[in-house]
Amino acid sequence: MCWVAAVTLCAAGVLAEPLPALRADARQVSVSGLSSGGFMAVQFHVAYSASVMGAGVVAGGPFYCAQNSVDIALNNCMLPDPVRPLPRVEALVAFTEASARAGAVDATAHLQRSRVWLFSGRKDPTVLQPVVSALQRYYLNFIPPSQVMYVNTVDAGHAFPTVNFGSECAFTGTPFIDRCGIDGAGMLLEQIHGRLEAAGAPVDAHLHEFDQREFFDHADAYSHSMHHTGVVYIPASCRAGGCRVHVAFHGCLQNVDAVGDGFVRHAGYNKWAETNRLIVLYPQAIARYGPGFRFWRVSYVVNPKGCWDWWGYDSPNYYRKDGPQMQAVMKMVERLTTR
Fold first, then answer.
1. Residue 124 annotated in active site
2. Which of 158, 228, 250, 266 is catalytic?
């Protein structure tokens, strides 16, 4: 696989190689994300709760909040007000239970063992704090309170919080990483996986790009607003097998096309991965606006900011185990855990 430094060639599919089978521990899979990546992390966690042990969510909301509607997504689920209120948590819980009974998502009993870390910045103008508070209430219907940590007292903008990398803490804007004096990646990983070894120095040569296309029918990632290539951090110790896997979903306007290696290199996951036998998978969505022509089909996708599908722009099954993006990322996880 090629280094992320060679992003132009890799993005064109010239150098990107297959994601390797690394015999990782399928019992130690977790997810996290910011903004649309936060909503996606919740979706993935709930849908695959038999396989995912926990989630870290920054500026994300409850499962199925958008209900297949971009209008609800952009208003009720991000900027709720008395005219466009958040969907009732009780209704979303009931929908989750019904989806589990139908086999669209895993049985909700699996969520009881999960550990969750939630973060909402007090200065976030994009996804307001009541949204993340609703997510906390949603999770508490399935998970004991002692296993859910909610951090909501930091004056952060709409961004992933780090100790000392990024913009000023209250800033909202590219690369959507703010220096807030807290280690978001470390906090969420420790909440989910338990006590960790001290962070080490990340190694540039351990960050690689891989071909995402093979995880879609007919190798057609583009039709589903997915990049040809994804990124993965593989510590040398993980080549021998037995490592944990963490999936980190970028936010809108935060993929490799928008911020280069900003998120995959500087969000803070890799330093923890290096000393804690952890593979970090950074799947990549792309911005699309309008029709696309691939093979036998015409697809029309409105996703101008390269967000993850948490409102149905790609498929009405977006929240289910058989949703195209969901299924593709799970196939990536399964590849890493293949023995």
1. yes
2. 158
User: CB–CB of 319/63 below 8 Å?
Assistant: yes
273 within 8 A of 59, measured Cβ to Cβ = no
For residue 42, what are the contacts with CB-CB under 8 A and spacing of at least 6? 55, 57, 60, 61, 62, 63, 135
pLDDT in tens, 243-261: 999 999 999 999 999 999 9
**Domain regions of the chain by residue span:** 2-337
Q: How far apart are CA 337 and CA 64, in angstroms?
A: 28
Say which of 30, 35, 36, 49 is annotated catalytic.
35
Note if 35 is an active site residue.
yes
Mean pLDDT of 35-44: 99
pLDDT at 1: 55
What are the φ and ψ backbone dihedral angles of 130, each rounded to 5 degrees? -60, -25
Least-confidence region, from 226-240, 242-256, 282-296: 282-296
First vs last C-alpha separation in the chain = 19
CA distances from 327 to 25, 227, 313, 336 (A): 19, 15, 16, 14
- Catalytic hit among 32, 49, 114, 124: 124
pLDDT of residue 117: 99
Give 159-206 pLDDT, tens digit per residue.
999 999 999 999 999 999 999 999 999 999 999 999 999 999 999 999
Per-residue b or e along 160-170, where b marks 16 or more CB atoms closer than 10 Å to that residue's CB: bbbeebbbebb
CB of 270 closer than 8 Å to CB of 206? yes
Closest-CA residue to 313 (of 305, 302, 325, 304): 302
